[in-house]
Design a protein that fits this description.
About 30% of the residues lie in helices and about 20% in strands. It is built from eight helices and ten strands. The protein has two domains: about 120 residues, MutM-like, N-terminal (N-terminal domain of MutM-like DNA repair proteins, Alpha-Beta Barrel), CATH 3.20.190; about 130 residues, Helicase, Ruva Protein, domain 3, CATH 1.10.8. By secondary structure, the protein is of the alpha+beta class.
């Protein structure tokens, strides 16, 4: 599932391609036919992302809500739209560009009340400049749940997925099994600031890089990481490989029904 930086990049791209102009909207697959008919010909006034949720705001007050989930994918291009291939849930077209959406977990219209409810059930987004993270800390402190589970809970922090959470905990020197009630406010401030920095870099670069300059392939004389997710990381999916900082083999275990990765030396329980 795409992490939050990818959704923010999509919001920027869709605004660039379609913002401020009327859009022809259709649903070749038919599963969004009524919503597409309602939006067809309206002006796309703004786009935004809240965590892993993409929002298109149209003239007339309707909002298109898209959650890609595990299988959702956008494709787009210049000029006339290509022939309809596969299950296209949503197609957007203007005089210069086209966009297709396939396989999303959600593609629906929200009225203002439903939009407000969506925002209310999501935690603060590290990529939103107005969020200082205190709302998230208030939900974390006193909890007996693990930090890994808490930080991946979208009602607590919106947008951070397994890679960002895994790497932020490594950079903070905290094992993923640390409970929320053991997290001090100063530690949280450092994690929150780090998530904001890492995810902003992800928006700018289009990939997840979490290593400091001293631990890049060039600095260490090592081969670049080869992984479908791309980017240089400390522990994510590096089971058994030496920690880039201390050389201890990276460990993994199932935690909160997900694979957790950590360095037992750099991330000791305090």
């Amino acid at each position: 599932m795409p992490e939050g930086h990818t959704i923010h990049r999509l919001a920027e791209r869709h605004r660039k391609l379609f913002g401020g102009r009327p859009v022809a909207v259709s649903s070749p697959q038919g599963r969004f036919a009524a919503g597409a008919q309602r939006l067809d010909g309206r002006v796309l006034e703004a786009t935004e992302a809240h965590g892993k949720h993409l929002l298109h705001h149209y003239s007339g007050g309707d909002t298109l809500h898209i959650h890609l989930g595990l299988y959702g994918k956008f494709t787009d291009g210049d000029g006339p739209a290509p022939g309809e291939v596969g299950e296209i849930r949503l197609r957007m077209v203007n005089a210069d560009h086209w966009l297709d959406l396939r396989g999303p977990a959600a593609c629906e219209l929200l009225d203002p009340g439903e939009l407000e409810a969506l925002h209310a059930r999501l935690g603060p987004d590290p990529l939103a400049f107005s969020d200082d993270g205190d709302v998230a800390f208030a939900r974390i402190r006193g909890s007996g749940r693990t930090l890994m589970g808490l930080l991946m809970d979208q009602s607590i922090v919106a947008g951070a997925g397994l890679i960002y959470v895994t790497e932020a905990l490594f950079r903070a020197g905290l094992p993923p099994t640390t409970t929320g009630k053991r997290l001090r406010y100063g530690q949280w401030q450092a994690i929150w600031a780090d998530l904001r920095t890492l995810m902003r870099t992800g928006v700018a670069e289009g990939r997840i890089d979490t290593v400091h300059s001293a631990h890049t392939p060039e600095a260490m004389g090592r081969a670049p990481r080869v992984d479908r997710h791309g980017g240089e990381v400390y522990v994510y999916r590096r089971t058994g490989q030496p920690c880039l900082v201390c050389g201890t083999p990276v460990r993994t275990a199932v935690l909160n029904a997900r694979n957790a990765y950590w360095c037992p030396a750099c991330q000791r329980e305090s």
